[in-house]
């Protein structure tokens, strides 16, 4: 009798250990894979929304009007370029500094009498940097690269007593490359 009791108890302990191990392994697997699954779902939703918008212009606006606000905001985040405003925010461009074609002013501010303007748009990072290098050189500015990485660069342009720092930032959203340019008076 005691021998059966010990074998049964040992079997139960082994079963509980295997059950706990299975739960821990399952939670670890799901935790590792969940972000990839969600990103894949967002990409499928964004591609579907983009194709629907191409086939039926104005569909996104009509659909978001029918949806609850929180769901409509999520859809706006998933669709490439949807987060970009259609028109400039308030403020003004800095006189004499060109703007990359197609970019939208997304921020403006003045601090200690120095202006700061940020533009954003669907544009290739390298092309934006080349545009500003060419245009600023044409205007007589000299360039100094003060920081660089594959997704961000800072250039300081100077001409006489005028100095500007241009910070370029590249982001990719569901396969769409977005570039942000911040222009600061120094």
Describe this structure as you would to a colleague:
With 186 residues, the chain is of the alpha+beta class. The protein folds into two domains: 2-78, no CATH class; 104-185, Alpha-D-Glucose-1,6-Bisphosphate, Chain A, domain 4. 46% of the residues lie in helices and 30% in strands. The protein has helices at residues 2-55, 59-66, 69-78, 125-138, and strands at residues 104-111, 114-122, 142-149, 152-159, 162-173, 176-185. It is elongated and about 95 Å long. The termini are far apart. The model has no long low-confidence stretch (mean pLDDT 81).
Which topology of the largest domain does CATH recognise? Alpha-D-Glucose-1,6-Bisphosphate, Chain A, domain 4
Assign the CATH class of the largest domain. Alpha Beta
Strand line-up across the major sheet: 1-2-6-5-4-3
Rg value: 27 Å
Q: Which CATH architecture of the largest domain?
A: 2-Layer Sandwich
Main beta-sheet annotation: 6 strands, antiparallel
Figure out the total of helices: 4
Q: Judging from the principal axes of the Cα atoms, what is the shape?
A: elongated
User: Can you tell me the CATH superfamily of the largest domain?
Assistant: START domain
Helix content: 40-55%
Topology, number of strands: 6
As residue ranges, the low-confidence spans are none
Q: What is the average of the pLDDT values? A: 81
Number of domains: 2
First and last CA, distance:
89 Å
Query: Helix- and strand-based class?
Result: alpha+beta
